[in-house]
Design brief:
This protein has 410 residues and is an alpha/beta fold. It has 2 domains: 253 residues, Alanine racemase (TIM Barrel, Alpha-Beta Barrel); 124 residues, Lyase, Ornithine Decarboxylase, Chain A, domain 1 (Beta Barrel). Bound molecules: pyridoxal-5'-phosphate. Pyridoxal-5'-phosphate (PLP) binds next to strand 10 and helix 10.
């Protein structure tokens, strides 16, 4: 366990501390929850810190990226672009060119036009690339919560469209379709939901392969593996998933255990959420008309900016009790930004609470810093500290820097 007080003393707050031992534990747990031989892609969207990418890559994870910046993090982490899957609905010719130049050769295609752009970019670079077709599968019977497919979506090919139009489509000569990519659910509420979604994807992949005449060499079943966000708690344990997946695969894709298709999965939050702890100092504790406010040095500029979408995050963080003697205090935890929206927690109960205290917000390794409002109010970005076996390996800080655009640049 990192010495959080010593880290706060040395590096100041707000600071994120990422514990690489916990990262390894999460990766091991996910490996054990999936059929053996499965590839696991780490989705950099959850946290692009190169030290996390480097450790996960070292453990055998592949890397799922969706921008030039995420690709730069892969390179900064010393990882090979041969392990990268490039995804996303808005890949521009310029970023495709950059990805190809760096050595990326596997893309998820989100539409016919996207596939043509991938093909054209490969042609310009005189290379051949592999593609997975991202599929927006038909709606599940019964539905299951946070689904992103089955309705209209900017992601992927609608199943119906693919089956209707594929035979008339001429895939670019520089592209080979290797299989399908599904990502129907995120942060699934329980194991049964996860298995249900993956089973539907397996069935859909088998049917599509038949109907489109695409040999299924590779199947990316996406993810949905859950994790707590900014509150105490532990990652779910998926004890039945492996057997459930094997059963579905035996039924629909009986050659899977001979590697046809090879299987892959994706995760952001399950892998990195619980390795991260946000340290924030209490600057002021004040009363206003019967309510107590604890003003912290971290707000939506450091955590929880995604809550602006009104969908992704719970409204309340739950710092661990710092064990201070004294009566419990119930306070709203607010950040330093000059907007009443900057509230991280409502009516949070903490024992004793005084200016100078350092609060620890657990489970903040995923969708923490880079999913926050980094530029809003122009405060310094929180420090990020990497810890391994209790020792600080590195500490760094992102900065937003204004650069001048050259007149001839486009
Ligand atoms: C966001 C995303 C992920 C990661 O989602 P988590 O819920 O963090 O595991 C994986 N794959 C794709 C395609 C994504 O867009």
């Amino acid at each position: 366990m990192p010495d959080f007080d010593a880290i706060a003393d040395r590096y100041g707050t707000p600071a994120y501390v990422y514990d690489l031992n916990r990262l390894e534990q999460a990766y091991d747990d996910l490996v054990r929850a999936l059929p053996s031989g499965s590839l696991i892609y780490y989705s950099l969207k959850a946290n692009p810190h190169p030290a996390l990418v480097r450790r996960l890559g070292g453990l055998g994870a592949r890397l799922e990226v969706s921008s030039a910046g995420e690709l730069a993090a892969v390179l900064a982490a010393g990882q090979s672009c041969r392990n990268v899957l490039y995804t996303g609905p808005g890949k521009t010719p310029a970023e495709l060119g950059g990805a190809l130049a760096a050595g990326v050769r596997l893309f998820s295609a989100e539409s016919f036009a996207d596939m043509r752009r991938i093909g054209a970019a490969a042609d310009r670079h005189s290379v051949h690339v592999d593609c997975l077709l991202r599929v927006n599968a038909p709606a599940a019977v019964g539905g299951s919560g946070l689904r992103m497919t089955g309705t209209s979506s900017q992601f992927g090919f609608d199943y119906e469209q693919l089956t209707a139009e594929w035979s008339a489509f001429r895939p670019p000569a520089t592209v080979t379709v290797r299989g399908f990519h599904f990502f129907p659910v995120t942060n699934a509420r329980d194991e049964a939901t996860l298995l249900d979604e993956m089973t539907q994807s397996i069935r859909c992949a088998a049917q599509l392969s038949q109907r489109l005449g695409i040999p299924l060499e590779s199947l990316d079943l996406g993810g949905g593996f859950a994790a707590p966000y900014a509150v105490p708690g532990s990652r779910p344990r998926y004890v039945a998933l492996r057997a459930g997946l094997r059963k579905a695969l035996d039924k629909w894709l009986p050659e899977w255990d001979r590697g046809r298709p090879s299987l892959s999965f994706e995760s952001g939050r399950y892998l990195v959420a619980d390795c991260g702890t946000l340290l924030a100092s209490v600057i002021d504790v004040k009363e206003s008309r019967g309510r107590t406010f604890a003003v912290l040095d971290a707000g939506l500029n450091a955590l929880g900016g995604l809550s602006a979408t009104g969908r992704l995050l719970p409204a309340s963080v739950g710092p661990e009790d710092i064990g201070r003697p004294g009566p419990p205090i119930i306070a709203d935890l607010v950040g330093p930004l000059c907007t009443p929206l900057d509230r991280l927690g409502r009516q949070v109960k903490l024992n004793g609470l005084a200016p100078g205290d350092v609060l620890r917000v657990p489970n903040t390794g995923a969708y923490g810093l880079t999913a926050s409002l980094l530029g809003f109010l122009s405060r310094p970005v929180a420090t990020e500290v990497i810890v391994s076996s209790g020792h600080v390996e590195e500490a760094s800080r992102l900065a937003l820097v204004r650069t001048t655009e050259g007149e001839t640049q486009q």
